[in-house]
Amino acid sequence: MASIGRVALTLAAASQFGVAFANTDPATGASPPVTRPCPQPQTPQDTRCYSGRDANGAYYWIAIPKDWNRLLVVHSHGGPSLTAPTGDSSLNDLKRFSAFVREGYAWIGSSYRREGFGVAAAAQDTDSARALFWDAFGKPKMTVLHGQSWGAGIAVRTAELNPGGYDGIILTNGVLGGGTGSYDFRADLRAVYQFYCGNHPSPGDSPYPLWQGLAAAGQLTNAELTRRVNDCTGVELPAAQRSPEQSRKLRNILAVTSIPERAFVSHMVWSTFSLHDLVARHLAGGNPFGNADVVYSGSDDDAALNRGVMRFSADPAAVQKLSEDADLSGKLDMPTLSLHAVNDPTAFVELENSFKSKVVARGAERHLLQIFTDEDNHQRLSNSEYAAALRVMRDWMRTGRRPDPRRFAKVCAAAQRQHADPCFVLTDYLPRPLSTRVPAREPGRR
Questions:
Q1: Cα distance between residue 76 and residue 111, in whole Å
Q2: 418: alpha, beta or left, given left = phi > 0 and alpha = psi -120 to 50?
Q3: What domains can be seen in the chain, in order of their start residue?
Q4: What is this structure's pTM?
Q5: What torsion do the CA atoms of 372, 375, 380, 385 make, to the nearest 10 degrees?
Q6: Residue 90 and residue 48: Cα distance in Å, rounded?
Q7: What is the pLDDT of residues 310-327, one digit of tens each?
Q8: Cα–Cα dist 280/274, whole Å
């Protein structure tokens, strides 16, 4: 923290004159914020932007609007990305969530220190970004965490691990089942896919357990994986050009796993490369997944599927390690607003039910507001909805009065006048339990 403070003194003087500079700390590799051109046309005119690198090696971007309201959004991005972070890793996040800056908030986003899984480390990097901003620009009136997708779990963990640093949390299309509750369906996908297709791994590949994602020295490319998936299911062909067998296999896989066709290839990629990163790198080869007691249903012959599908059992040590890193306690102590598209093809909306169950079990339901929208995009929602989330959260933090979905809908309608995007708020929607979409596991995750 001392090195950040030294950065702050230099920055405070330089920023008055718009001076760009970079002095890297030889001990940590950290560099102070450097003036950068703001992305246009996304950010308002006269917004000041900076980028730099913290002492953990994580890169960050900062945006401060001309008429800054002295409130700050600290952003946790989704993923996990499997490519190493760069100085511009957070730039696309700033563009995507520039509605926050147009609402008058300052914004900072961290790339995290490295690629791949690791929720606790990413939470440390998120809080490091918050501390760096406070040191450089002064403590804002209020600081709000924002987590998108995988970053939603990181945002919640950041608040859990750093009490006192934040006043509220906004979550969008969040992966909120925790480490041990969010990814079972991808292990199921690999097992079900292999039963019908038998080409991932193919007979000529080195054998490996499906929960591992890839062989230890796997060299499979995205293009080759996509080719195999298309050969088996014809998913990238117009429906009329698929063979009857391709159509049958695709129909069965999608029905059993509850994955939308438009996201099928993406989930196959994630269930290959992301699972490999999680297991091989983060869990040192341990298996956190089990399907030994799962009864799969929805196919044209469930009995044959359940007889022939590959079975595996979780390693309790791997489950424990993943839980300690990435599970959410449900112990909220600040206003938390979760915004989720009900037709999100990537982070199933039923994950919200899992999150709420944990919050209710901890007696913290008064701190949680869940808003659902009639949208089908995982990567982004309506800018008017983002603006409404900030406005509703600001009032909640100031007054302590928890709003409701109808209040959110009214605020969103008003935000449309500035942001143009329509609102798709569903004021009465309640998500079903995750077990209605992903078969539940018995205790011990057999």
A1: 8
A2: alpha
A3: 2-178+333-435 (3.40.50.1820), 184-323 (no CATH)
A4: 0.92
A5: -50
A6: 15
A7: 999 999 999 999 999 999
A8: 10
